[in-house]
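Bug #2210: token dump truncated for Terpene synthase N-terminal domain-containing protein?
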Amino acid sequence: MELTLKSLSPLAYGALNCRKNFAMASPRMRIKQGRSELPNLTITSKIDELQVTERRSANYHPSIWDPKFIESLSTPYTNEGYSNQLEDLKEEAKRVIKDARDTSSRLEFIDSMQRLGVAYHLEEEIKEAIDLVHLDDTTTDDLSTTALRFRLLRQHGYPVSSEVFDQFRSKDGRFMDGISQDIAGPLSLYEASHLGVEGEDDLEEARRFSTIHLKSLVGNLESNLADQVQQSLEVPLHWRMPRLEARNFIDIYQRRNTKNSALLELAKLDYNLVQSSYQTELKELTR
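Reproduced locally. Full output below:
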């Protein structure tokens, strides 16, 4: 009986025919003149009977990245040319975080370094600083600092309870309206609420409370601060891509009166060097 295969490749079809003929042969090998004799195996081909299925097209749009444009990308920033400046700025940033004498200052520097995209240069120093923050369990009545401490500790894997926000609640369990007068408090609380885990209903309440008050205040803020609040309402910090946030936060940080010049310069240089590396890799991939 002949098998007709229309959905297999020629190679697979031939292999099946080979097995069929071998199974039909005698199970014993005959010994003749000192050598073994195997049954003849016949491999047939049914290429003409194969059905060719046309591959569907996804109708992708042509790439907007013209190869000539990619090859034309250039930048003066190279690791060889800026390595010394980079190391100097890193050392200066290390001194800044080590010189911080209180929890509030440490928190601000850690948060800024992370959002500026340079935390990976200062992992040991940040680890030491966050350890000190964790050990300092002094209670503060500042909502912004409390929420920032909660968020950073959770981001770094330290155990911290959401009960730290109980002092900002009234007897009925609701957050007190008085804490919403300063925009920094509700904004920091809103960002911290996204570090909650399943079952922490108090953080869900914190998110609802802060969202309502941020939306009510955003229209009365100056443009730069209003833009920050609007960005957070659309995409919280915990959901953002670090490298894109670095570019965004550089513009925000350099407008702050409390900015650290060395940290800002480190962030700008690091961003340009990383971008240069990406451009080089992109050129290699298009060749």
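Output looks complete on our side. Confidence is low (pLDDT under 50) at residues 1-36. Marking as cannot-reproduce; reopen if the truncation happens again.
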